[in-house]
Fold this protein.
Amino acid sequence: MSVEIRKLSVENVEALIEVARESWKWTYEGIYSDEYIENWIREKYSKEKLLNEITRSWSEPDLLFLGAFVDLKLAGFIEVKIKEDNAELLRLYLKPEYTHRKIGRDLLSEAEKIMKEKVVSECTLYVHSQNHVGISFYYKNGFTVKGIDGSDFLMIKKYE
Ligand code: ACO
């Protein structure tokens, strides 16, 4: 299995929507209804929005949008927004069959490498309080819970 982490390009948009849809269905099964998930994907992962974000990630250094490609196929992605010395991990999703193979860790490490180059001192994220896979992954990668915001945990990691 060869894994390559690189910036997403506009040609990846259809695959990106498919990864997001599959990952959302798996992650939020029993948390959100199928209808809620479909609406979310249609709205937040619309082709138009994603093309815009991918394009911005090439021109604006404060937006990281990376894909993990396994044997050349998109398996997952990470999106991070940097604001001065703070970053927010907006999205990190893998296709279910690619979870538990350290691909998420590799995506996070690559994003953190770039964040450190940009002298980011802390990274925050929101994760659903019932998303046990996500929460345990973030704990194992150095994040701690800083607070609760509705149904989400706010997690934080500080960098030297
Ligand atoms: N089942 C149960 N736990 C899992 C699984 C799985 N299939 N995959 C990962 N984990 C957890 C375990 O705690 C694991 O530790 P262990 O190896 O000691 O059991 C830990 O994550 C580390 O595993 P990795 O292989 O490094 O993680 P992975 O490559 O799977 O990436 C990620 C983690 C991104 C959370 C991935 O599992 C995924 O896409 N999950 C579904 C989507 C999701 O929850 N994303 C986070 C949403 S919050 C946000 O985007 C800000």
User: Anything to note?
Assistant: The helical segments are 13-27, 34-44, 47-59, 103-117, 132-140. The first strand starts at residue 3 and ends at 7. Strands lie at 3-7, 63-70, 73-83, 86-94, 122-128, 144-149, 152-158.
